[in-house]
Amino acid sequence: MEIHLIDSAGKDFYFPVNPEEVKISRGKGYETVNIMALGEFDFISGEKVKEITFSSFFPLEYDAGYCQYKQIPNPKDAMNQLTATMNSQTPVRLLIVGPTGNVINALVMIATHDSIFRGGEPGDIYYDLTARTWRKPRIHVRAGADSSTKKGGTTATSRPDTKNTAKTYTVKSGDSLSKIAKLELGDCSKWSKIYNLNKTTIGPNSNLIKPGQKLVLPS
């Protein structure tokens, strides 16, 4: 399993040690109304924001027995980066990739993360992290309200943009099309689909991708 936090600039924070478990909390929202002489009634108000929680640690030194990769971050730097992400007003993409593909691929805000220092393990920092799925706010306009005015005093309602915005990926040092396909699409064999969409950018050799190139991903 791999766990990544990817910001809007494409910077990838790769958690070095997998947690024992990942918990996803779901729920339905209710609004309770007290109607005189009839009592209380519950009205469904929609799905609650999902919470994703997991716990692990940042080791001071690499250990092949549990580390996902060799160039692990310094524990203090890792915690500072999580704090900066939590304090940011911009959502990040939480990507959890399992043996059969993506388990979670969602925009989230880091709600909380706790640091834990244990005696006998100097340098290692344990943590508990909670992320909440992010949804873009939708503003509903009251029926009959003027959204825009044409000449002559008549009103016109703007049409919503129904076009789907293509998802892109910015190439980083060490990337390959198969690695990008694994992280973004959950299947490394889909590298050819990425290449076919970006032949003009990449060129005739699919193995020669360069850091900074912006690739369009299949929908």
TrEMBL record:
<dbReference type="InterPro" id="IPR018392">
    <property type="entry name" value="LysM"/>
</dbReference>
<dbReference type="InterPro" id="IPR052196">
    <property type="entry name" value="Bact_Kbp"/>
</dbReference>
<dbReference type="Pfam" id="PF01476">
    <property type="entry name" value="LysM"/>
</dbReference>
<protein>
    <submittedName>
        <fullName>LysM peptidoglycan-binding domain-containing protein</fullName>
    </submittedName>
</protein>
<dbReference type="InterPro" id="IPR036779">
    <property type="entry name" value="LysM_dom_sf"/>
</dbReference>
<feature type="domain" description="LysM">
    <location>
        <begin position="167"/>
        <end position="217"/>
    </location>
</feature>
<feature type="region of interest" description="Disordered">
    <location>
        <begin position="142"/>
        <end position="167"/>
    </location>
</feature>
